[in-house]
């Protein structure tokens, strides 16, 4: 099931209550309904919302910040004098409150941006939405700031500022034992998680992500999800993050995403985007909210030409929205529900490599059926004289790849970044480095033999990459023959490789190596040298570099 399968049914209309301008409240009497104690009140500077289930939260009437989260009498919110909010705080905003039966809704308006916080009677959750209309208000994230010392300070996204050492950009830390930590080191793709958070064993506090239809980067995007140190804890919902980003910002209403308290376990799966029955939202009259009746579905019979060793994902994207769903193993059947109407680019991914691209149109209230899609763009289907790695759009087959989504390349756990390999029939992928940098491991060598017949002909060398930093790209030397310097493909302009992400734009460099380049004696090794070239400069792991997907030589 797609992470965007979110059925929605109509409810009733709301009645607006509360302030008409920032800091100014109308004289209205808060009401209660449903769970005992449910309702809201006004303490003068904040709206106080009681869920009737043990959670009471407060929202600033002047800024819209979430300023308090008291669960069963214990305060969890805030650190360092800061509260929970969009970006680093919106500042002066118009904040109003409304109650409709068993739902309380707080509306925050700041310029063209609208942000919402809601409570439902009997649920220990805060439901949130953020609506970006344009770029006039910076909104890359919502961050829930939590008090230090409540939850364990552990994991690859935790550090101790008083003891650890900053080694890069103010946000990558190295511990005394040589291991590295950063808020960027979540280690998971957006498609792989439904919630993120912490538990003490008796209390859990989680951020349940939205369907991300208005976010950017696609199903394989990696971003900061949480962090912790001795100063405080952060949980994030990403609205649009620029690091390692491959897509433009999308605008519109994103949510609901949910701050959920539990008795220590994971949040209720009914809150997950794929399961969340948001029919109750329809009655809140949120601008730009689209219910089930305004959405459609795409269903595919299957995929032909699948590699059984790889998972397949079907993605849908246009300027307004993004969705994805997994394809069934064996048949490749897929279904993606809850999609906004429009025409989408449909992309089938083998692993993270696009192997088919088409278009599909989604119509509200209907299902678009697709016949079997034949996958014709898989480079693995081409026979190869030799191949190092696997064409799947990731560096996963290579040395250190498994560590790099939750650690820095300087981490003590990383194997040496050198990687000369000899191709004598065995799989050497595990000895070949997943990343190449101009200032770290430039000039990696690949030794291989050719038969006399093979050496008598020109051959095409292919190098697949998944991203690049500072336009780093490979120039190759085969024995005495040197290739031209290839043009750089479009890649993210920010840090990559060191921030837990290899995800950029997959690209294949091709080099036609003439017959005159080869050794004519079949007993002699040919030597392929890979050099990283760029017009930009840097040092160490911040020098020009690239992530390798696959290297092969075609007949």
Q: In summary, what is this structure?
A:
By secondary structure, the chain is mainly β. Helices cover 1% and strands 38% of the residues.
Could you explain how this protein is built, in words?
- The chain has 555 residues and is mostly beta strands.
- The chain is 1% helix and 38% strand.
- The protein has 1 helix and 39 strands.
- The strands form 9 sheets. An 8-stranded antiparallel beta sheet has the order 1-8-9-10-11-20-17-16, with no helix packed on it.
- Strand 10 and strand 11 (125-132) form a beta hairpin.
- The longest helix is centred in the last third of the chain and has 4 residues, at 452-455.
- The protein is globular and about 85 Å long.
- Residues 1-33 have low confidence and may be disordered.
Number of DSSP strand runs: 39
As laid out across the biggest beta sheet, the strand order is 1-8-9-10-11-20-17-16
Strand content: 35-45%
Major β-sheet, in short? 8 strands, antiparallel
Using only CA atoms, what is the Rg? 26 Å
Number of helices in the DSSP assignment: 1
From the N-terminal CA to the C-terminal CA, the straight-line distance is 41 Å
Shape: globular
Q: Helical residue percent?
A: under 10%
Low-confidence spans: pLDDT under 50, at least 5 residues? Answer: 1-33
| Average predicted confidence as pLDDT | 93
| Helix-and-strand structural type | mainly beta
């Amino acid at each position: 099931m797609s992470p965007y399968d979110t059925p929605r049914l109509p409810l009733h209309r709301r009645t607006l209550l509360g302030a008409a301008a920032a800091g100014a409240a109308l004289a209205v009497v808060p009401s209660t309904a449903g769970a005992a104690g449910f309702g809201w009140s006004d303490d003068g500077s904040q709206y106080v919302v009681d869920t009737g289930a043990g959670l009471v939260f407060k929202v600033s009437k002047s800024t819209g910040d979430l300023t308090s989260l008291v669960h069963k009498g214990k305060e969890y919110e805030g650190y360092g004098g800061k509260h929970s909010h969009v970006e680093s705080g919106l500042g002066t905003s118009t904040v109003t409150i409304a109650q409709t039966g068993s739902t309380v809704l707080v509306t925050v308006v700041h310029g063209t941006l609208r942000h919402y916080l809601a409570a439902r009677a009997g649920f220990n959750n805060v439901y949130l939405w953020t609506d970006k209309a344009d770029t006039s208000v910076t909104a890359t994230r919502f961050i829930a700031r939590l008090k230090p010392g409540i939850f364990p300070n552990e994991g690859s996204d935790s550090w101790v500022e008083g003891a650890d050492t900053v080694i890069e950009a103010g946000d990558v830390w190295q511990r005394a034992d040589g291991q590295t930590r950063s808020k960027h080191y979540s280690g998971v793709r957006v498609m792989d998680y439904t919630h993120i958070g912490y538990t003490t064993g008796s209390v859990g506090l989680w951020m349940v992500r939205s369907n991300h239809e208005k976010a950017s980067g696609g199903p394989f995007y990696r971003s900061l999800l949480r962090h912790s140190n001795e100063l405080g804890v952060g949980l994030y919902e990403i609205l649009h993050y620029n690091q390692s980003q491959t897509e433009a910002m999308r605008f519109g209403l994103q949510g609901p995403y949910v701050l959920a308290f539990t008795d220590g376990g994971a949040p209720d799966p009914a809150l997950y985007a794929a399961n969340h029955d948001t029919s109750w939202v329809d009655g809140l009259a949120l601008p730009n909210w689209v219910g089930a009746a305004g959405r459609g579905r795409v269903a595919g019979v299957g995929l032909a030409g699948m590699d059984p060793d790889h998972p397949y994902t079907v993605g849908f994207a246009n300027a307004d929205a993004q969705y994805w769903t997994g394809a069934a193993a064996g048949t490749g059947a897929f279904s993606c529900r809850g999609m906004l109407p429009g025409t989408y680019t449909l992309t089938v991914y083998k692993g993270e490599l696009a192997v088919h691209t088409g278009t599909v149109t989604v119509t509200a209230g209907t299902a678009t059926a697709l016949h079997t899609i034949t996958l014709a763009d898989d480079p693995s289907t081409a026979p190869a004289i030799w191949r190092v790695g696997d064409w799947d759009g990731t560096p996963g087959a290579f040395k250190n790849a498994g560590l790099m989504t939750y650690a820095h390349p300087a981490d003590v756990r990383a194997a040496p970044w050198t990687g000369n390999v000899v191709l004598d029939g065995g799989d050497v992928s595990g000895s070949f480095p997943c990343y190449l940098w101009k200032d770290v491991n430039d000039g990696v060598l690949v030794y291989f033999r050719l038969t006399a017949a093979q050496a008598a002909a020109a051959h095409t060398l292919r190098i697949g990459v998944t991203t690049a930093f500072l336009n780093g790209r490979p120039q190759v030397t085969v024995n005495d023959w040197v290739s031209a310097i290839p043009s750089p493909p479009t890649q993210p302009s920010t840090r990559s490789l060191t921030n837990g992400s290899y995800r950029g734009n997959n690209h294949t460099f091709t080099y036609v190596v003439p017959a005159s380049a080869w050794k004519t004696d079949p007993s002699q090794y040919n030597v392929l040298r890979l050099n990283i070239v760029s017009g930009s400069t840097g040092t160490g792991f911040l020098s020009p570099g690239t992530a390798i997907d696959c290297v092969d030589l075609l007949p």
